[in-house]
Amino acid sequence: MAKRRRPIQFNDRRLYYNLKEVADHFAVNTSLLRFWEKEFDNIKPKKTQGGARQFTKEDIMEVELVYNLVKERGMTLDGAKQVLKTNKDGESKRIEAIERLKKVKKELLNLETEFDRLHEIQKYNKKEIE
């Protein structure tokens, strides 16, 4: 059974997120994030004196690039490295567009639910008037 993703709710007051939170966000093991950190130059979380990783929102976006290429598109690590080397900006824009489309879809589904609710109310009120 696949793990359930727990998306991080970003806010402006919080600067850092720990390794476990980021792993839960992508539904991957913490060891995979540590491995990607070694393999990909773009993943560089800050480390505390005790060695705990602290990810900024920008760090998480870098992880998202790798996640998208490796987990969602099924690329090898070498293939993902090549894409990031040659077309990182294009890949970032593509992921941003997908995220915006997901938000639009969610809003449209909310509107559909609200329209259905209003339609039921109107239908009920119409029967009372007749």
Report on the structure:
The chain is mostly helical. It has a single domain, classed as Multidrug-efflux Transporter Regulator, Chain: A, Domain 2 (Orthogonal Bundle), CATH 1.10.1660.10. 67% of the residues lie in helices and 5% in strands. The chain contains 4 helices and 3 strands; from the N terminus they run E-H-H-E-E-H-H. The chain has helices spanning 19-26, 30-39, 57-72, 77-129, and strands at 17-18, 46-47, 53-55. It has a 3-stranded antiparallel beta sheet with strand order 1-3-2. Strand 2 (46-47) and strand 3 form a beta hairpin. The longest helix is centred in the C-terminal third of the chain and has 53 residues, at 77-129. The N and C termini lie far apart (53 Å). The model has no long low-confidence stretch (mean pLDDT 85).
Q: Strands, helices and their partners?
A:
Layout lengths: L16 E2 H8 L3 H10 L6 E2 L5 E3 L1 H16 L4 H53 L1
Antiparallel strand pairs: 1-3, 2-3
